[in-house]
Design goal:
The protein is an all-alpha fold. The chain is built from three helices and no strands. It has one domain.
Length: 91
C-alpha cells in the first residue's frame, strides 16, 4: 500500500504543529507545564525561544508546521520508494 505523500505530509505537519501549539498555550496558562519540551523545541528551531508569550507560541507552531511538513514529505517518499522496491523483489 502506497501513501498519498502530500496528504501524509499535511497530516504530520498539522499534528506536530498542533502539539507545539497546545503545549505552548498550556504553558501560557500554567507556566511550568511543558517547559522542558518547549526548551527542546527551542534548541532545534533557530529563532524560537521557549518564552511564555503568545508570539513565541505562534513562532514555534509555524516552525513545527514547516519542519514536520518537510519531514512528512521525505518520510512519505521514502516509504513509497521502499514499498515499490520490496514489492518487486517478492514476486
Amino acid at each position: 500500500m502506497r501513501l498519498n505523500i502530500p496528504a501524509f505530509a499535511v497530516a504530520i505537519a498539522l499534528v506536530w504543529a498542533g502539539t507545539i501549539f497546545l503545549v505552548g498555550a498550556a504553558n501560557l496558562v500554567w507556566p511550568p507545564y511543558g517547559q522542558v519540551f518547549l526548551v527542546l523545541a527551542a534548541s532545534i528551531y533557530p529563532g524560537y525561544h521557549a518564552d511564555p508569550n503568545f508570539g513565541s507560541v505562534i513562532i514555534g507552531t509555524l516552525y513545527g508546521l514547516v519542519d514536520a511538513g518537510i519531514g512528512g514529505l521525505i518520510f512519505g517518499w521514502l516509504y513509497n520508494f521502499l514499498v515499490r522496491r520490496f514489492s518487486n523483489t517478492q514476486a
